[in-house]
Amino acid sequence: MRLLIAFCILGLSWLSVAESEQNKIVCYFGSWAIYRSGNGKIEISDLDPSLCTHMIYTFVGITEAGEVAVLDPWADLSDNWGRAGFQKFNALRERNPGMKTLVAIGGWNQGSDKYSRVAAKPALRAHFADNALEFVLKYGFDGLDFDWEYPNQRGGIPADVENFVLLLKELRVRFDEHRLILTAAVAATENSASLSYNIPSISKYLDFINIMTYDFHGSWDPVTGHNAPLYPATRETTATARGLNVNASVHYWLSQGAPAEKLVLGTALYGRTFTLSNSARNTPGSAASGPGPAGPYTGERGMLGYNEICEQQVKTTWTTDWDEQQQVPYAHNGNQWVSYDNVKSITEKANYAKAMGLGGAMVWSIETDDFRGICGNKYPLLNALNHVLR
């Protein structure tokens, strides 16, 4: 009887570990959203931590001296009448005690140069690891997400590939002493990832890997294309074009030695917009003359948050279509065209992650979902992930 009970306990423990490895929902939060206006403005208290297993606050930076830099002290800290973003973010765990919080270092705007310089010198790597540990403990996070975009690119050097491994190794040693989480956000496609990562080695030191399977197409292209297609389309005939999708990216990372259970599939809670060259030609692959106008909340040409997209579809005459080959929607109105994800495509991606045995899914980013429920239920895309994965 005792043996049976012990076996059952061990079995339950194994199941709980398996669930934790394969049912992550990782929610990035763009902290600058507190500066948005109208229905796009969000407070940290508006976030729903029950929908996430991990939440990641973005971003902090790095200095030439190898120390973590707070990029927006007024928003992040409580000093000098600041808004105490770190403190409020970590307090979300009170509403979901099982949820973990991380802080992300890097991002697109930080580039690669400083990270390359710090990673190149053993003394700076060691100092950074000590400083990062001190920072995470000081502000009460459960870990660090490394978002260096990208080693050996954008001002980096070829030695970055192995220096990044050495930097992660330094962090791993320090973080293990305090049971802290270490993750990274990584380039998805073979064309980019093959330049930046020793995939087996970084996989060894990371708890999980957030693969940024979006931004495959955008207004930088001369024709319309999906932001985050699940599969290639028959119109894509070159090897490069057929690699610009979720399925190809996941298979590349797996083929290079990334454990499936450590890969967390990126999903986009925003769309990429185009201005059509001819409004009568509005299918994927149609000629485009540039980005669409900035949205009222995100304020960036060429992209719209899902909340902006769904509000436009409610108020104006948008035609929505579904690309059967690529398993994603797109919409057009006059000369405006947008590729994005909706509940149906997010559900397809969640089922894909589950079928592939991946560690779960992540969202970039939580504050561009319909968090107010203007178009229906609150957080429809995030809830779709939860419906499948949890």
TrEMBL record:
Keyword annotations of the record: Glycosidase, Hydrolase, Signal
How far does the signal peptide extend, from start to end residue?
1-20
Q: Which CDD domains does this chain map to?
A: GH18_chitolectin_chitotriosidase
Please, one GO biological process term? Answer: polysaccharide catabolic process
Q: Where is the GH18 domain?
A: 23-390
Q: Which domain of life is it from?
A: Eukaryota
Q: Please name the Gene3D superfamilies in this protein's record.
A: 3.10.50.10, Glycosidases
- Entry-linked InterPro entries: Chitinase_II/V-like_cat, Chitinase_insertion_sf, GH, Glyco_hydro18_cat, Glyco_hydro_18_chit_AS, Glycosyl_Hydrlase_18
Classification via SMART domains: Glyco_18
Q: Which GO terms describe its molecular function?
A: chitin binding; endochitinase activity
- Pfam families to which the protein is assigned, alphabetical: Glyco_hydro_18
Q: Quick one: a GO cellular component term?
A: extracellular region
Family, similarity comment: Belongs to the glycosyl hydrolase 18 family.
Q: PANTHER family in the record, alphabetically?
A: CHITINASE, CHITINASE 4-RELATED
Name of protein: Acidic mammalian chitinase
Q: Which organism is it from?
A: Neodiprion lecontei
